[in-house]
Amino acid sequence: MVVRDQDGVIRASKSTLHSNISSPFVAEAYACLEATKLVISMGIESVTIMGDSKTVINKCKSTTRDKSVIETIIQDIRSNSSRF
What we know:
The chain has 84 residues and is mainly α. Helix content is 45%, strand content 8%.
């Protein structure tokens, strides 16, 4: 993942390996979760997280309970997102 400021300047990048990822869908959700963790660790207060999976993005934005295979990841993303 890449963190850019409001001017598009790269401020940080990170790569993470996960084992037992069952699908690209789950991988996208984990990438979003890792992005929220990185933003929190950097102390950034305002951020826009972008990704390739519209489904993951919509699940993160939704206020309804997610009942998919990535439910716990989405819950963690939402929890982390409340901190910035």
